[in-house]
Amino acid sequence: MNSKETRQAAKQTTHERDGWKCVVCGIPGNSETLSDHHLIERSLWASEENDGYICANLVSLCSSCHLKAEQTLISVEELREMAGITEIVVPEQFYPETQLTKWGDEILIGGRRLKGPLFDEESVQEVLREGRVLGFYDNRFKYPRTFHMPFSPGALSDDKKLKDCSQFEGKEVVIFVKIDGENFQVYSDGYMHARSLSKPNHPSQAWAKNYLSQRAYLIPEGWRLSCENVYAEHSIHYSNLDNYVYLFAIWNERNEVLPFDELVEWSELLDITLCPVLWRGIWDEEIVRNIYRSKYNLDDMEGWVSWTTHGFHYKDFHKNVAKYVQSGWSENIKHGGIHWRDKPVIPNRLRERKQ
Ligand SMILES: [Zn+2]
Ligand SMILES: [Zn+2]
């Protein structure tokens, strides 16, 4: 974390940049009366060297404009513009192109909001309630960004990589096969969406939607499932799938992922195939570094994803989940050839069952 002196220096530089005035209403002030407001909340800047005390994340505000900014009545973009900030910096867990509130809630086209990592916190609830903006929030959650393992060969320059594996040390993990499909969230009210909520439906989703809608009534109220829809070929053509939908996480009404053992029980109860597990055990970097094989069940394997098994809150996702992608696959998947959304649907194949 930054030292007190670094923070003081950032604050000083910010006020100087802003001419010792509130960037919104122009009222002049001093170090006592002007706040150094964080465009994106401090606690979301989790990394060691950056805790959000950087000028591109700070603006000078008077007390009344500060309150409005905290209540999200003035947007991050407006504040950036008023302060003349052209550099867009957001905490690593977010994508720079995503429009966010100060509290890390994604803002959709049209102004509806998804609940972000800090939404449940009492102080945040209070601020949003006072700002009368709670009505903008949908009870939907974006599936979080998964960081790469430090030794993941497939990490591209715009991917986020863990510096080391210390966050897993001493913890039990389960390592899932990474399936090259589409991330799919299913809610207790039957609503489903892919990673991006703004993309239109796609014909390759029909099978999964039908399959999952028959099971949604079993999902407890306020819970949601994270699944992979693998009906259509993306970069890998599968010939030996157990199912077109794989379950890999369940979130409860407090936005916590269930411990792995409970996930296993629920996958049986819901009758949704669990994502294949490569290994489970207390984190051992030696073992984990050597766990990748090019094939799983005779099909190509893109990589794997490691999850701690104890369960955790949505806001701690990046501290508990990380992936390994074999080089070649990410380039293929992200930048190579025609994107699967633009191709005709080629169904993957289920494994032939012996009679
Ligand atoms: Zn002001
Ligand atoms: Zn503030």
From TrEMBL:
It comes from the Bacteria. GO terms for molecular function: endonuclease activity; nucleic acid binding; zinc ion binding. Residues 9-67 form the HNH nuclease domain. CDD domains: HNHc. InterPro entries: Cell-binding_unc_protein, HNH, HNH_nuc, RNA_ligase_dom_REL/Rnl2. PANTHER family: GLUCONOKINASE, SLR0207 PROTEIN. This is HNH nuclease domain-containing protein. The lineage of its organism: Bacteria, Candidatus Woeseibacteriota.
